[in-house]
Predict the structure.
Amino acid sequence: MSEPVKLLGSFGSPFTHRAEAALRLKGVAYEFIQEDLGNKSELLLRHNPVHKKVPLLLHGDRAVAESLVIVEYVDEAFDGPPLLPSDPLARAAARFWAQFAVDRCSRTLFKALWTPDGEARRGLVAETKENLALMEARLDGRRFFGGDQVGYLDVAASGLAWLPVLEELAGVERSMMGEEEFPALCRWRGEYTSHEAVKACLPSRDQIVAFYAGMKERLVLHARSMQK
Amino acid sequence: MAAEKNVGLVLLNSSLSPFGQRCSIALAEKGLPHEYVEEDLAAKSDLLLRSNPIYKQVPVLLHDGRTIIESLIILQYLDEAFPDTRPLLPTDPYERAQARFWADYVDKKVYGCGSRLYMIKGEPQVPANIEMAGILKTLEGELGEKEFFGGEHGFGFLDIALVPFSTWFESFDKFWGVGVAEVAPKLAAWAARCMERESVSKNVFSPEKVSDFIGEMRKDLGIE
């Protein structure tokens, strides 16, 4: 089965990165189609009518949306090193922590970054750190969340790799994920971002800055409108 | 009755919880014997707090003492840990992706919009009503002419993900004027078909119970 694989995405977006990282780790050849999020293509709208968002994977005529759904699909549909462990309990744990990383770390962190200074922001920062501490404990001396190899949970948590640049953009003085408090996570970030397969699809600092350029007001508004 | 083989399963649940109901339905569909513990959510047991210290919520599945949490994760776990039972997810990766996508949609949209509807009355309800009607229509579009969302696979993962919310349909009409039978008749028919399954009828709250529960809650919150 060698139908063409296309990934519609926005380079610089952590969601798109998850999908791309999965393809790279699995060794799948694909064409990356950069979407202009201000002017979405007919291809995207036709194949993801429900959410109209990237990333969107097109495998032949099959469309798969939602970044973590795409990651699991890539793991199951293609041969290559497994992204999820084989033991059912370990798989359940990976899925749980992936959801936690996405909902309670990346999302909360995003809100914290773009909420103006004040009590609300302090609360969000505290919450982010509490949740990061759980991820820190999860690493438990291992190189990656997946053990020796990058896996599903590493990919799900990859948004944390963006943090230094985003904090710079948001004008944060002290990082939420500082090395003193989170030595294992900081080491993991270094390992993840220097991994051969991941490096190939990781945006540079400039590309991340470009992605977020001119978005600050919108990000602040979005953070405010996000539900708990 | 012959003694059920103990496979070491315990479900910590509250019969109120649609997420917990998903797990009960799944266990019933798979014919998996288990110990059922009804949690008082106002006075959570030590076992629950120890098993799910992060969220302190039901449902929690214990398998030989080890914890699995989050209803959709529990459903997938049951498929993977008990491969000789009736599978909830299909085998084809694309069909599995579709089931996961739509189950995520149910969580975000049906539960998301539904919980917002609870909290409001009067004028502000209108946009939320329109949103809910749209969500139901979208789900109906996915169902199409199929008997169940699982299609050829039959009653499955996505059906189980959505069906506990189907007994909210009458309440959507009563409290918020979203008439599911008019807005999404195929979905209403699907819900009726699901209720014919013992696994569902025994484990979901009846529409009357849901309606009473919502009425009580809205009174408590000073909405009615």
